[in-house]
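[job 0412] stage=complex_fold ligand=S-adenosylmethionine status=START
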Amino acid sequence: MTTNIPTGVMASGSNPSPIEAGYEATSDWDEQSVASSTQSLTESIMEHIYENGRRYHRKSKDQYLLPTDEKEQDRLDIVHHLHLELLGGNLTVTKFEEDPPNVLDCGCGTGIWALDFGDVHKGSEVIGLDLAPIQPGWTAPNVKFELDDLEKKWTYPKNHFNFIHSRHLVMSIRNWSRYLQQMYKHTAPGGRIEISEHTNDRWWCDDDTMPEGSAVPAYWRAVLPCYEKLNMNVGLRGDDYRRLVEEAGFEDVNLHSFKIPIGMWARDRRLRRLGGIVAESTITATESYALNLLTSVGGMPVDDAKKLINAAVATISDPKQHAYYFEYFITARKPVQPVVV
Ligand SMILES: C[S@@+](CC[C@H](N)C(=O)[O-])C[C@H]1O[C@@H](n2cnc3c(N)ncnc32)[C@H](O)[C@@H]1O
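[job 0412] stage=complex_fold status=DONE, emitting structure tokens
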């Protein structure tokens, strides 16, 4: 299948080659409103609460642990920018010969991907769906936002969407099999899906620049038991997602893996640029992912949690640490003549 992936940044095989370090970076990284809803919009669905200096969506705080405030929304938009850089300016790995008529963006966040997709594909009707009302009130005529829970039974018609997009829901979806089965049921025969996920249970390092005794392993040692307590499987790898997509019934399943540096330490210019964007987002991502988790689930006092998070960020932000993570893209198609619809 043809894809939009630019050459030079993809990790291949199960043991991809190391990223060559060589750039001496400095410590600064230089270089209410939803249009519609499938639920009745009661007051409570619009409410937020404030805790430990962050804002959370009241109705889903125990279900989805990340904040919804401006700081988090800015982070989501930086990550969108990262993906555009990664995919050479494209919104997807999947290539379209014509605009897919009905498109769903699952867990759309600020709605930035849905709006961009609607802009590029004027012939598509795009729905961005999320638990939390953090999408803009104004939208393009072919883009609308809905509030709903992807883990509940989907209310859309069967065989409806020609393209379903799902990005960074590792903290959102508890039951991936069920999620993908629902995705399959609501994809039109011959329709396509694309899932992108990142690793979320460790950071890697190939050259011992991130020592065992540093703040980073301590951070993961505190965070991982909290995920376990919640029964959240944050350790899925690209091959796991691929298998789950295949098991749901999709065909032409392709996995594209990227090894992405955290920080501007790579010799390669393109990777260095990506690493700079990642570093920028990691500064706030670490708190977004871990503060509520460590305090509410782990029972850690807020000051201790902040200290741990800040130490991990400082360590990972040090350009002498050659840390990286993986980003996976899985593309697939529902058979034109599905055995089960
Ligand atoms: C990390 S953000 C990713 C946002 C967006 N996909 C992007 O890439 O910019 C995860 C989003 O999923 C939403 N979410 C979490 N659990 C959900 C669920 N069960 N149903 C619908 N949306 C959910 C959150 O509110 C949040 O906006």
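The helical segments are 70-86, 112-120, 176-186, 215-229, 238-247, 269-297, 302-317.
[job 0412] exit 0
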